[in-house]
Amino acid sequence: MKFAVNYSTAAKELLKKKKIDVDLFKCPDWAPVINAASALRPVYIHFDIGVGLGQVDHLDQGQILDLVQRTATPHLNCHLNAPANYSPQNTSDRIHLRDTWLKELEALHSLAGDLPIAAENLPLQPYRSGFNISADPELIDSVIRQSGCELLLDLSHARITAFNLGISAEEYIRGLPTDLLRELHITGLKLYHGFLQDHFELTDEDFAYAAWAQAQIIQGAWRTPEIVALEYGGVGEVFGWRTDKSRLLEQVPRLMDMFGSKSHLVTPVHQPSLE
């Protein structure tokens, strides 16, 4: 298991000063970012590949394979998405989405060859109707198992979905194929513009969920992921404005101790409380 963090100039500066350490940098498929990060640590690419929207046939396969090979990215990720007008209550929509996911995941397998495919759960949000059906755990579980893919579990996405469904995160995640876990994403959550959003710094509650996830891995309830990534900070319009060097300094070492290649996983004496 290796620990990664989103590449950012703040993380770069802290790493160069030996204030933090990570096994990997997680990067978008942007050449300048990849080049800058690669000078400091191994990198892996998190691609913006959406499955379910008819985009797979239009991917630049040559560029994807080149980036995977140049960075030794260990699996090809994708996001399980859905058209905005699909309803989880509509049987026809559910069947069509399942069939579309399977077809497009098969195409990704053909593109990737022997490289594993890790499919990520997206959050159910009231303002994004198409995300509602794509967050259905029964659909996610059945398609991942049938397609031969593995799970990229975004813990924050799962927590947001559970919050908007009015259930616990533990209940929601029990419906996902955590026995096929390949990668785990962790961020902090915050109410922003009236909605629970991710990619913020971690609070005590967020660390409690990280500790709970660690316990599931230690106890064998989940498969040990290849990578655990902190998706805080970054570059560009979405992530750059919420990158605080002091937060990285506080949180990266703590998570590196929990999930990094040099961590010593020991079964907690007490199950972390999420209350």
Q: Please give the domain count.
A: 1
Shape: globular
Using the 3D structure, state the CATH architecture. Answer: Alpha-Beta Barrel
CATH fold descriptor: TIM Barrel
Distance from N terminus to C terminus (CA atoms, Å) equals 28 Å
**What is the CATH superfamily classification?**
Divalent-metal-dependent TIM barrel enzymes
> How is the main sheet built?
9 strands, parallel
Task: Please identify the top-level CATH class.
Answer: Alpha Beta
Spatial order of strands in the largest sheet: 3-2-1-11-8-7-6-5-4
Helix content: 40-55%
What are the low-pLDDT stretches, counting only 5+ consecutive residues below 50? none
Give the strand content.
15-25%
In short:
With 275 residues, the protein is an alpha/beta fold.
Describe this structure in words.
With 275 residues, the protein is an alpha/beta fold. 41% of the residues are buried. It is globular and about 55 Å long. It has one domain: Divalent-metal-dependent TIM barrel enzymes (TIM Barrel, Alpha-Beta Barrel), CATH 3.20.20. The protein contains eleven helices and eleven strands. Helix 4 runs parallel beside helix 6.
